[in-house]
Structures are given as structure tokens and as C-alpha cells.
Design brief:
Oligomer: single chain
Distance between the termini: 127 Å
Strand content: 15-25%
Strand order of the largest sheet: 4-1-5-6-7
Structural class: alpha/beta
Number of strands: 12
Length: 356
């Protein structure tokens, strides 16, 4: 019996170990599943927080600053906000531009025009190249293929109707292309100049900002003519020169357009002061108008300011002001305590008005 006790104890110990092994495996497996589930939950919470779906407390603690002011967030404060209520207030009162909103604005409307100027108050067509139409058609073809909306001055009747605008718009420098682009609601206008010799065909194309007539860029290209004199061959060479020049000019246009959208949508405003004011009163009026406009729009750029004329460009938040009529309504509201306003004419890009 004394010899059997150690053997019996050993047998019981082995049996207990054998019985407990499966339970240990099960516990280990259960612990592993729980750890994996916890890991997945933490990962999911992290991803949700990155996507903006995290808890209010977490997002408030994580971000305590507000972006600097932009054209689409003109009143955003520069200092940090440290509590939840301030963060919620900012989120509900500010409007930010996003990629889809900018996409809705689309590409610029472009007008194509030869180098036209006024001579003694009449459109001067004498210097227009005989290859002008071919060049314009090649430029139009390039732009329409890229899905741009293209405007063009088609004839004397259109040019004559545009002349009426010259007396209303200051600082035109007798540039018909500038006047036409405003009248035809273009964002950008392209002027072109072809030149044909026996040896080569060259085309110069230049892009300008409509609201201020600022040069955005120029591009010139040259192709060999090899003594061709037939109209078909010359027209073909002009088309080749245009296709060679336009990609570079297009890149300059798009670079300007993207930067300009960050400021807002441009509207040219020309206000004629009809009331009688002293010099001091005129300056007070100018100051009050500019102060009111700058506090309500993204930016205001003055082109001309005289005793009788205000010519400026407004950059308006496209998410807040959908068109020129809404911009005019806001201007009228701003100026109502200062002076009476009268709308003379409104197009897509131009607002002509009187101040009395």
C-alpha cells in the first residue's frame, strides 16, 4: 500500500493535467479573440475620427485652432479656441469652400478677338490681318475641343453696340477687345496677331483678365512656310502655329483661374456719382463706400476713383453670392444709409450704377 500511494498521486496529477489542457486552450483562444476585437474597435474609432465622425469631445480636444481667414471664410478668427461651445459656434456660422463647390464654378468663359482699337470714335479695322478669321477659327476650335465656353466679336454691328459702353467705363484706353469682353460676359479675353511671310508663319496669342485688362501671359509660335502662297497651305500653317502656341497659353490661363478662385468671383462695378458734393464730402463718400464694401466682400480692388466715377472690382464669395444681381442687391443694401443707388445695367460680369 505504501508503494501504491506515490503511483496513485502521479496518475491523478497526469489526469488533472490532461483534463485542464483543453480548457486552457479555450481560455487562450477566448483571450485572443477579445484582444483582437478590442484592437479592431480602437482602429475603427481612429479611422472614424480621421474622417470627421469621432466624438465631439475627442475632436474638440484634438483640434483647438481655426483656419486663417480666406475668401470663403472671411471672418474666421486667428486665435485658438479652447472650449467646445466656441468650436461649435464657429462650425455653425462659417462657410468653407470645398472641391465640389469650386468644381461647380467651372472653367472661365473666354472671348477671342483680334487686336482692335478705336480711331476717332470708330472701330479701326484697317490694320486687321487678312488671316484674322483663320486664326480666330483655329483658336476657337482649340478651346471648344477643350470644352471652354467661347465668345467672339462677329461683325461691325456688335462692335458698334459695344461703343455705347465706352462713355460708361473709365480707363478703357480705347481697347475694343477689353470693352467687348465685358459686354459679352467673358472672364478672360484672348487677343491674337498672325504674320505670314514666304519663309514662316507666326502667331502671337495673349490672354487678359477682363475685369482689369491685366495681361496674364503671351505665347508665340512659328512654323515653316517654305514659300507657300496658296490659301489652303497658309491656313494650314496658321492652324499648326495656333495649336503649337495655345497649350502654353492655356496653362497660364488655368494657373490664373485657380489662384483667382481662391479670392472669389470677380465683378466689375462702375458707379457714376450724379449728386453734387464738395471735395470733402466726396472723400467722405469714397471712404464710407470702400469701408462698407470691404467689410462685406472678400476683397475690393480699385481701378479708378475720381470725383464723379468709381471703378472697382469686387471679389465675392461664390458660395454666398450666386450672380451679379445678388452682388448688386448687397451693394445697394450697404450704400442705402449713405446714398441712393440706381441700376443702369447688369451683365454677368459688369454692374453699371449711379449714386445720387
Amino acid at each position: 500500500m505504501r508503494h501504491l500511494i506515490p503511483s496513485l498521486c502521479l496518475a491523478l496529477l497526469l489526469a488533472e493535467t490532461a483534463c485542464s489542457a483543453p480548457n486552457a486552450v479555450k481560455r487562450n483562444a477566448s483571450d485572443t479573440r477579445q484582444k483582437n476585437a478590442a484592437t479592431r474597435q480602437r482602429a475603427e474609432s481612429a479611422y472614424n475620427e480621421l474622417d470627421g465622425f469621432g466624438s465631439t469631445t475627442a475632436s474638440t480636444a484634438k483640434s483647438t485652432t481655426v483656419s486663417a481667414p480666406t475668401a470663403f471664410n472671411a471672418s474666421a478668427p486667428s486665435q485658438a479656441v479652447s472650449n467646445k461651445s466656441a468650436a461649435v459656434s464657429e462650425a455653425t456660422t462659417e462657410t468653407y469652400a470645398n472641391a465640389s463647390a469650386i468644381q461647380d464654378i467651372g472653367t472661365p468663359v473666354i472671348m477671342v478677338s483680334p487686336n482692335l482699337t478705336l480711331k476717332d470714335g470708330v472701330p479701326d479695322l484697317s490694320s486687321e490681318s487678312p488671316y484674322s478669321r483663320t486664326t480666330a477659327e483655329a483658336i476657337n476650335g482649340y478651346l471648344t475641343k477643350k470644352n471652354y465656353e467661347v465668345k467672339s466679336v462677329n461683325g461691325q454691328a456688335e462692335l458698334s453696340s459695344i461703343l455705347q459702353m465706352q462713355s460708361d467705363i473709365a480707363n478703357t484706353e480705347d481697347d475694343l477687345s477689353y470693352l467687348a469682353s465685358i459686354a459679352l460676359d467673358a472672364d478672360i479675353y484672348i487677343k491674337y496677331s498672325p504674320e505670314v511671310t514666304n519663309d514662316e508663319v507666326s502667331v502671337e496669342v495673349s490672354a487678359y483678365e477682363t475685369s482689369t485688362a491685366r495681361l496674364l501671359g503671351s505665347q508665340t509660335s512659328v512654323v515653316r512656310n517654305n514659300g507657300h502662297t496658296s490659301k489652303i497651305n497658309i491656313n494650314s500653317n496658321i492652324g499648326a502655329a495656333v495649336r503649337k502656341a495655345m497649350p502654353g497659353l492655356e496653362q497660364k490661363i488655368l494657373g490664373y483661374w485657380k489662384m483667382d478662385l481662391a479670392k472669389g468671383t470677380q465683378y466689375k462695378v462702375v458707379a457714376n456719382i450724379k449728386g453734387e458734393y464738395s471735395d470733402s464730402q466726396t472723400e467722405d463718400l469714397h471712404d464710407a463706400i470702400m469701408k462698407g464694401l470691404k467689410s462685406n466682400f472678400s476683397s475690393v480692388k480699385v481701378n479708378v476713383m475720381t470725383a464723379k466715377t468709381l471703378d472697382f472690382v469686387i471679389y465675392a464669395n461664390p458660395l454666398k453670392y450666386k450672380d451679379s444681381q445678388e452682388v448688386y442687391t448687397k451693394i445697394r443694401q450697404i450704400l442705402k444709409p449713405i446714398t441712393e443707388t440706381k441700376k443702369n445695367n447688369i451683365t454677368r460680369k459688369l454692374i453699371l450704377m449711379e449714386l445720387n
